[in-house]
């Protein structure tokens, strides 16, 4: 019922708020401050991802294997959260997956090309958390990072943690 | 709530969940960062304001609504167009003050509070306070200074959610000093 744009507005404001709050205590932001911001955003995303995947998979049967889970994430989950499917999924079949989204919805409004490339990580932290949270509730502990070389194309790297 | 198997309804509902859950994560984080509910309410209002000043442009672009003639028209546009467009719900406009400068929006349902319960130690928290800031910020961009607050909140035990809006004054456009 809520319009899609509301999430975009909210997400941008959340990022802005987190960085402003961290900066207000001192003048400059150093790498440690930036890491704190990213970490806060990522953990917010984690909770959201957990909740979303629960709602989405309530009535689905369990998944066959890791690859099945990742395909679900790339198709159904990505469509639910980021309004399109992942364009490309690669894996080394040893627990590392790379999900490539060529028009990542949270980056399309920032730029297309190289402008603001250094700002991209701020806007990806939450999403990494969302993915990590979703996988966590599907039984996969992972580390999720994202990298951008040309906006709005984005690569998410998922490294599954084996116990 | 019955689930329609209509594709469009489903996907709109899903996006609503993303927004609702994200908002919940935000409020939770703010409660962690600030000691008391009053501070959290203030932050939500501030963030809402920042969103509102941008949202108004999105709204004006998508709705092609022209200038409102008076505050009554403003109220109608907010309830019937804006709320419908963004939150998928149409509040009713009521409780007009005799001077016509104050009214209430009564919301039957508030997507922000799906799945939400307030714990006992946060009785002063105005969970949806972001909305007040959004309305305030948006209207300021169309030259209206308003005061917006929640008069009733289903999360705090009331039957309905009621937002009270009061017109303060018209903001004169500040034209830059030019060569006369």
* Structural class by secondary-structure content of chain B: alpha+beta
Shape of chain B: globular
Give the spatial strand order of the biggest sheet of chain B.
1-2-4-3
Residue-averaged pLDDT of chain B, rounded? 88
Work out the radius of gyration of chain A. 16 Å
Give structural notes.
- Chain B: One of its GO terms (cellular component) is endoplasmic reticulum.
- Chain B: It holds the Pfam family TRAPP.
- Chain B: Homodimer.
- Chain B: Keywords: Endoplasmic reticulum, ER-Golgi transport, Golgi apparatus, Lipoprotein, Palmitate, Transport.
- The complex is a heterodimer of chains A (163) and B (180).
- Chain A is α+β, with helices and mostly antiparallel strands.
- Helices cover 50% and strands 14% of the residues of chain A.
- Chain A has helices at residues 4-24, 31-56, 66-82, 120-137, and strands at residues 88-91, 96-101, 142-147, 154-160.
- A four-stranded antiparallel beta sheet of chain A has the order 1-2-4-3, with helices on one face.
- In chain A, a hairpin with a 6-residue loop joins β3 (142-147) and β4.
- The mean pLDDT of chain A is 92.
- Chain B is globular.
- Chain B has a single domain, classed as Muramoyl-pentapeptide Carboxypeptidase, domain 2, CATH 3.30.1380.20.
- Chain B has helices spanning 7-33, 37-63, 71-87, 129-140; strands at residues 92-94, 102-107, 144-152, 161-170.
- Chain B has four helices and four strands.
- With 180 residues, chain B is an alpha+beta fold.
- In chain B, α2 crosses α4.
- Chain A binds chain B through residues 1-7, 9-11, 13-14, 16-17, 21, 40, 44-45, 47-48, 51-52, 55-56, 79-81, 83, 126, and chain B through 11-26, 28-29, 33, 43, 47, 50-51, 54-55, 58, 85-89, 111, 115, 130.
Q: How would you summarize what this structure contains?
A:
Chain A is α+β, with helices and mostly antiparallel strands and 163 residues long. Chain A is built from 4 helices and 4 strands, in the order H-H-H-E-E-H-E-E.
């Amino acid at each position: 019922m809520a319009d899609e744009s509301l999430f975009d507005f909210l997400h941008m404001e959340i990022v802005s708020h987190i960085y402003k709050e961290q900066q207000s205590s001192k003048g400059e932001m150093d790498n440690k401050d930036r890491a704190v911001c990213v970490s806060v955003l990522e953990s917010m995303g984690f909770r959201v991802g957990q909740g979303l995947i629960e709602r989405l998979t309530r009535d689905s049967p369990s998944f066959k294997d890791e690859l099945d889970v990742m395909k679900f994430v790339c198709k159904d989950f990505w469509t639910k959260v980021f309004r399109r499917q992942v364009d490309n999924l690669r894996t080394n079949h040893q627990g590392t997956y790379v999900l490539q989204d060529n028009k990542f919805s949270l980056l399309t409004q920032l730029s297309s090309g190289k402008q603001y490339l250094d700002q991209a990580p701020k806007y990806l932290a939450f999403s990494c958390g969302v993915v990590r949270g979703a996988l966590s509730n599907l039984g996969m502990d992972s580390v999720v990072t994202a990298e951008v070389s040309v906006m709005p194309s984005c690569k998410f790297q998922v490294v599954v943690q084996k116990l | 709530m019955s689930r329609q198997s209509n594709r469009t309804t489903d996907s709109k509902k899903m996006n609503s969940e993303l927004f609702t859950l994200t908002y919940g994560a935000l409020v939770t984080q703010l409660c962690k960062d600030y000691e008391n509910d009053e501070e959290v309410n203030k932050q939500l209002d501030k963030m809402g304001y920042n969103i509102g000043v941008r949202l108004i442009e999105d709204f004006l672009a998508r709705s092609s609504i022209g200038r409102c003639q008076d505050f009554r028209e403003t109220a109608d546009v907010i309830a019937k167009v804006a709320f419908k467009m963004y939150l998928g719900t149409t509040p009713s406009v009521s409780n007009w003050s005799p001077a016509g400068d104050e009214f209430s929006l009564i919301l039957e349902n508030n997507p922000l509070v799906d799945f939400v319960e307030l714990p006992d130690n946060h009785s002063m928290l105005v969970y949806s306070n972001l909305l007040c800031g959004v309305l305030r910020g948006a209207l300021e961009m169309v030259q209206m200074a308003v005061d917006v607050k929640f008069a009733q909140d289903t999360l705090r035990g009331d039957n309905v959610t009621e937002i009270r809006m009061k017109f303060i004054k018209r903001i004169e456009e500040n034209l830059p000093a030019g060569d006369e």
